[in-house]
TrEMBL record:
Enzyme Commission identifier(s): 2.7.7.8
Enzyme class: transferase
Binding site for Mg(2+): D489, D495
UniProt name for this protein: Polyribonucleotide nucleotidyltransferase
Major location (coarse): cytoplasm
Length: 740
């Protein structure tokens, strides 16, 4: 054991959180070996010795690695080795990144990697939360410049009571899944999924988490005091002030204002390109300044936009601070798909397509925190380069796309119908046609309308909007911006996204670029988003489609569900699947059977679905004396015919029971394949024999038509049009051949 090894512990939500420092990973800039209950995570941070050349951003990478051994499980697939990160791992990496990135120096260009390795999982203690705290500790005690510490807490809501750092079981039934990161002074990150939680309750939960974060920060301060390293010096990549002054002599502040203040993104980009060409010509002999020109122009634009918004209360496109861009909505714009909608807000345009499928097509999840489960609703988001007028080869969704899709997915989960009411797996895909700010919120609106157009009986309409922020030097000097466009996002301090119904919040995602928000700003942003999303529903979404359609789309699969005795599942499936495959072949449907006896039957033809259900019911229904069936002749013997009443259920129709008149040969009346209506006269369960009759006199007073259908193929109280005269109550069909 290293002589520098020290261990620190704190009680957190009734469980012990321990950080071992100096015990492992000594060659990293810093490492925190974290234990929360039996959950164990190794959090490390490393930095390159020199800045990366030719970049104008801070190159931070955050990794969250899920190892299946942590939950005592084998990886799925043939390789039996962990592959690309799961969606949960990607989203966790983003949640760690978002609060920590602003706390590093803005002009720091050294590569930094924060890595979290999950080694064991205790269902009572979240490995994601443990990694968030471990990352903050590692950064705080390292020699890497970092203006922390920060801390993170999760809040649940069960039966109206807040739960701090809920367990897996508690989180599964919680009305709120909230993650809040804070510095000592302010909230710096909010991520939430909620079941229509009112704004006031959400704010209360946020600041409960913030109060716990402050206690965690005191704990981290103690660790830093004992184990913290001296922060190293670094090469600043800030723009020299004399360079800015030289630029202003060529491009005046008025010139820059005229260039950036327009409601057309393409015009703005053309204006900036023209100014850049002018500056490149002026500084052609100064290679050092030319190398910094892109960053200098960016900073010049940023200062110009921020000054005009904050001081002059003027937005780049001329809108009022709380004004939403022009809205429009359409449904059914794509033929043959199950549902489609397009939502446009200014120069942001999303087309969403909904697809319905059997529950068996739900996404299978193999995670650390629970046994393998299925995800019934999936929202996928795509962001092609053409949506911003660029050219780039598509290599699949990146972390941003996965994050945006997950946010819109969380937004709609609370209003989806239960699978017993609507037994479908649901996928919505948002295709970004055009982007200029907050496509994830446009995706929420578009997917809500797409679901309604597809006939998904969602409980309430959901909309989303983003609120921006520009701050001054003092906490009380700020401006909130409703519906931020790309320029306001790039140069502003906050992107606060909120989705919800008229009655409450369903999701939140807050990103900031400053060192935290005051409570006044948080409350103001939440209220601004509430008003805006109701405006969007009232003026745009509801006039387009105000409620879910009563029927699913023409091309969507039709699904019906029944429940059977689990003990009779084997009868429906049959040996080597012969029975169920025969039903599928006969009706053209697809059948899924769960272990609890839930049977889903689906296909394009509802009539064939009901036929398959009738067959299944006939299989699982015990045959009793007096039942009437429409069966098929499957074998003929000298003494009578065998009638298939249901798959693997045959009855014996004696020659004497075929007609009131004497018959010499069965073949004179019946052929194999004929459909006949028969009545069960006797059931011998000991011998497994069922005696049948076609004689009209045995049907008693049963009317020729009428009555009602019994389970399966049985018809109780009628013979469905029996012809009382020979050739008797039969339908000719098939050929006279033995049953195979």
């Amino acid at each position: 054991m290293s002589k520098d090894y020290k261990s620190f512990s704190i009680e957190l939500a009734g469980r012990t959180l321990t950080a071992d420092i100096g015990r492992v990973a000594a060659q990293a800039n810093a490492a925190a070996f974290m234990h929360y209950g039996d959950t164990t995570v190794l959090s490390t941070i490393t930095a390159s010795e020199k800045p990366r050349d030719g970049i104008d951003f801070f190159p931070l990478s955050v990794e969250y690695e899920e190892k299946m051994y942590a939950a005592g499980k084998m990886p799925g697939g043939f390789n039996k080795r962990e592959g690309k990160p799961s969606e949960n791992a990607v989203l966790t990496s983003r949640v760690i990144d978002r609060p920590m990135r602003p706390l590093f120096p803005k002009d720091y260009r050294n590569d930094v990697t924060i890595s979290n390795l999950v080694l064991s999982v205790d269902p009572e203690c979240s490995p994601e939360l443990t990694a968030m705290i471990g990352s903050a500790i590692a950064a705080a005690i390292s020699d890497i410049p970092f203006n922390g510490p920060c801390a993170t807490t999760q809040i649940g809501l069960l039966d109206g009571t807040f739960i701090v750092n809920p367990s897996d079981t508690q989180a599964a039934s919680s009305d709120l899944k909230l993650t809040v990161a804070s510095t000592r002074e302010k909230v710096i990150m909010i991520e939430a999924g909620a079941n229509e939680v009112p704004e006031a309750v959400m704010i209360e939960a946020i600041y409960l988490a913030d109060s716990i974060n402050k206690k965690l920060i005191d704990f981290i301060d103690m660790i830093v005091k004992e184990c913290g390293k001296q922060k190293h010096e670094y090469t600043s990549c800030s723009i020299p002030e004399e360079f800015f002054e030289a630029i202003k002599n060529i491009v005046s502040p008025q010139d820059m204002e005229e260039a950036v203040f327009t409601d057309e993104k393409q015009i703005r980009e053309a204006n900036i390109k023209s100014l850049k060409a002018k500056l490149e010509e002026s500084f052609a002999d100064n290679e050092e300044w030319l190398a910094l020109l892109d960053e200098a122009i960016y900073q010049y634009q940023k200062k110009t936009v921020r000054k005009m918004i904050l001081k002059d209360k003027k937005r780049p496109d001329g809108r009022q601070m709380n004004q939403i861009r022009k809205l429009s909505a359409e449904v059914d714009i794509i033929p043959r798909v199950h549902g489609s909608a397009m939502f446009t807000r200014g120069q942001t345009q999303i087309c969403n397509i909904a697809t319905l499928a059997p529950l068996s097509d739900s996404q299978r999840l193999d995670g650390l925190n629970a046994e393998e489960t299925a995800k019934r609703y999936m929202h996928h988001y795509n962001f092609p380069s053409y949506s911003v007028g660029e050219t780039k080869v598509s290599r699949g969704p990146g972390r941003r796309e996965i994050g945006h899709g997950a946010l819109a997915e969380r937004a709609l989960i609370p209003v989806l119908p239960d699978e017993t009411e609507f037994p479908y797996a649901i996928r919505t895909v948002s295709e970004t046609f055009e982007s200029n700010g907050s496509t994830s919120m446009a995706s929420t609106c578009a997917s809500c309308m797409s679901l309604m157009a597809a006939g998904v009986p969602i409980k309430k309409m959901v909309a989303g909007i983003s609120c921006g922020l520009v701050t001054g030097e003092n906490d009380d000097e700020y401006v909130l911006l409703t519906d931020i466009q790309g320029l306001e996002d790039f140069f502003g301090d906050m992107d606060f996204k909120v989705t919800g119904t008229r009655d409450g919040i369903t999701a939140i995602q807050m990103d900031i670029k400053i060192h935290g928000l005051t409570r006044e700003i948080v409350e103001g942003a939440i209220e601004t988003c509430r008003q805006a999303r109701i405006f969007i529903m009232d003026t745009c979404m509801e006039p387009c489609i105000d409620k879910p359609r009563s029927e699913i789309g023409e091309f969507a699969p039709k699904i019906e569900m029944i429940s059977i005795d689990p003990a009779k599942i084997g009868d429906v499936v049959g040996k080597q699947g012969k029975v169920i495959n025969k039903i599928i072949e006969e009706t053209g449907v697809k059948i899924d059977i769960d272990d609890d006896g839930k049977v889903s039957v689906f296909g394009p033809d509802r009539q064939m679905i009901f036929k398959a259900i009738e067959i299944i019911k006939s299989i699982v229904t015990d045959i009793e004396e007096g039942m009437i069936f429409k069966g098929k002749v499957v074998r003929i013997a000298e003494f009578g015919a065998f009638i298939e009443l249901a798959p693997n259920k045959d009855g014996m129709l004696h020659i004497s029971k075929i007609s009131e008149k004497r018959i010499d040969r069965v073949e004179d009346v019946l052929d194999i394949g004929d459909e006949v209506t028969v009545k069960v006269m006797e059931v011998d369960n000991v011998r497994g024999r069922i005696s049948l009759s076609m004689r009209p006199s045995d049907f008693g007073d049963t009317p020729e038509t009428g009555g009602h259908r019994h389970k399966g193929h049985a018809v109780e109280g009628r013979d469905e049009g029996i012809n009382r005269d020979l050739p008797h109550n039969r339908r000719k069909g098939g050929h006279n051949k033995k049953r195979q």
